[in-house]
Amino acid sequence: MIIMPTSRATLAHKLIHGDCLEVLRALDEASCIFADPPDNIGLGYNEFNDRRPDDTYVAWLGDCLRLFIQKANIVWVSYNAKWSFALGMIVDDLLREHKWLEAKPCVQVYTFGQHNHHDLGNNHRPLLRLRRDDAPLYPDAIRVPSWRQLNGDRRADSRGRVPGDVFDFPRVTGNSKQRRRWHPTQLNEDLVERCVMLSTLEGQRVIDPFAGTGTTLRVCDRIGRPCTLIECDRTYCEHIAAEHHLKPQGPGTKLFLAS
Ligand SMILES: C[S@@+](CC[C@H](N)C(=O)[O-])C[C@H]1O[C@@H](n2cnc3c(N)ncnc32)[C@H](O)[C@@H]1O
Questions:
Q1: Chain-wide mean pLDDT for the chain?
Q2: How far from chain centre, in Å, is Cα 84?
Q3: How many angstroms is it from 180 CA to the middle of ligand 1?
């Protein structure tokens, strides 16, 4: 399906410098949240401390998820497999508390994971989708060529097939064209695009509470969704603002808007 992008001038993107929980509480609801929280594995962020005590980190993840499901119909969370069990317990509690909530476990797999001579290497990153059970999905928007199409089988569905819950997208490493070298980690734009396309229509707002390099905004800009980014690091905010011509709303402001 071809989506004609809305012109950039009409997309009211926002970037807010601040803590995601504090900022998000004051924001209106959106159609979708895409969240890639820090992994708490000691990555070298500019300001942010990525090595908090495990219990503190897990409790904070729980607070995030609780707020996210109140603020969007569909929430995607990309997280480190190290936290699968702790996160599973949080989701289990949420499902008991909210009968309207549905959880869909997905996974990103990649060929060039971290190699380990002594044990199995790491070639995957879990991806969780939490959804209000009445929130619409748009699977026709993410169809991909089917095996039959690729092999010239006349029985092939000309629309292609809706992909499964295994997302095969490479990690964004040093020599990737997508790479922004001023930030230690970023997600593949195609992965974020698939999630957003499945969850929203053109013009519907997407929030990313952990902007990082602004991957979600780059994707939203391309496919015509207004995006709100939140990021606690001022330097990262300034990089994103410069790339997307977002203007600070006054000296020392926390809000950057599309002009
Ligand atoms: C894993 S990175 C996100 C990368 C992003 N998905 C991308 O593709 O560029 C997490 C980001 O969240 C930011 N961050 C950490 N804690 C935060 C908080 N409480 N509120 C807002 N941003 C936070 C970090 O500074 C970091 O840039």
A1: 94
A2: 17
A3: 14
Give the tens place of pLDDT for each residue, 107-123.
Answer: 999 987 777 899 998 89
Query: Using a 6 Å cutoff on CB, does residue 45 contact ligand 1?
Result: yes
Dist. CA 123 → ligand 1 center (Å): 22
Q: Is residue 165 part of a domain?
A: yes
Q: Give the C-alpha separation, 133 to 38, whole Å.
A: 28
* Total tally of structural domains belonging to the chain: 1
6 Cα to the center of ligand 1, angstroms? 27
Tell me, yes or no, whether 1 lies in a domain.
no
Assess whether the C-beta atom of 193 lies below 6 angstroms from ligand 1.
no
Residue identifier of the C-alpha nearest atom 2 of ligand 1 = 212
Atom 12 (ligand 1) nearest CA:
210
- In angstroms, the Cα distances linking 2 to 146, 204, 224, 245 are 17, 17, 12, 26
Question: In which domain, by residue range, is 133 found?
Answer: 8-258
Q: Rounded to the nearest whole angstrom, what is the distance from the C-alpha of residue 156 to the centroid of ligand 1?
A: 42
pTM score: 0.95
- Residue 132's CATH number: 3.40.50.150
Least confident piece of the model among 5-14, 170-179, 250-259: 5-14
Query: In 3D, which of 18, 32, 81 has the Cα closest to residue 254?
Result: 18
pLDDT band at 9, cuts 50/70/90?
Answer: low
Domain presence at residue 39: yes
Tokens found for residue 147: 């095996």
Specify if 166 maps to a domain: yes
Q: Residue 84: pLDDT above 90?
A: yes
Query: Does ligand 1 come within 6 angstroms of the Cβ of 20?
Result: yes
